[in-house]
Amino acid sequence: MGSGKAAQLSALSPPALNLDLPMRPTPIPALPAPLWRHLAAALYDLLALVGLWFLAGAVALALTGGALDAHRPAHKLLLQALTLGASAGYFVLSWTRGGQTLGLRAWRLRVVRADGGALDATQAVLRFAVALLSLAALGAGFWWALADRERRTWHDLVARTRVVWAEGGGPRAEG
Fold first, then answer.
1. I need a surface site. Which of 62, 126, 134, 165 has the fewest CB within 10 A?
2. Domain residues for 87?
3. Who's near 87: CB < 8 A, 6+ residues apart?
4. SS3 state of residue 82
């Protein structure tokens, strides 16, 4: 009678877990975000960038002892380097730490790798550099998203990234 009770208890206990297999959540394919949302997020980011550019100007002013003259090549180069560095820092840090700038967060978007994972620093720097080229080409790299089936820009294609709806965002969440 004791062994019958043990068999009943054994049948009721949960199966043993196989801890040798990696437990990974099944990725849910995220929907690509429309270009107009990219551009709306970019306007928000421009506000943050203007603040950083003012800060870069203040640093340049301090480094030149208050005698910053944008007509002097050395001072102009200093100001451009600080402004570019602040801009790159803003985007690279935002993309590698959660995939969202302030604008992307406000519009419920996220930058991810093509496989859905988080960007590394190399991908983020490459994405930023190609985005600058896209802007220099009168925005052609951004408008490319209108022709691409997955709504990718030039910088997305080169860096193997994409902009998708963030958790809690998406066409169904807009109501």
1. 62
2. 35-165
3. 49, 52, 53, 128
4. helix
> Please, which residues bridge with residue 113 across strands?
161
Give the pLDDT confidence score for residue 175 in this predicted structure: 42
Q: Residue 41's pLDDT is what? A: 96
Specify which residues 165 forms β-bridges with: 109
Q: Which phi and psi angles does 36 have, rounded to 5°? A: -60, -30
* pLDDT the model gives residue 70: 86
Q: Is there a domain that residue 16 lies in?
A: no
Based on the structure, what is the number of domains in the chain? 1
Give CA separation, 13 vs 5, 9, 23, 90, in Å. 13, 6, 21, 52
Report which secondary-structure segment, H or E, holds 161: strand 161-165
pLDDT along the chain (175 residues), means of 10: 57 52 49 92 97 97 93 95 98 97 96 95 98 96 94 96 86 52
Q: Does residue 2 sit within a domain?
A: no
Q: How many angstroms separate the first and last alpha carbons of the chain?
A: 62
Q: Which amino acid is at 91?
A: F
Are 107 and 170 within 8 A, CB to CB?
no
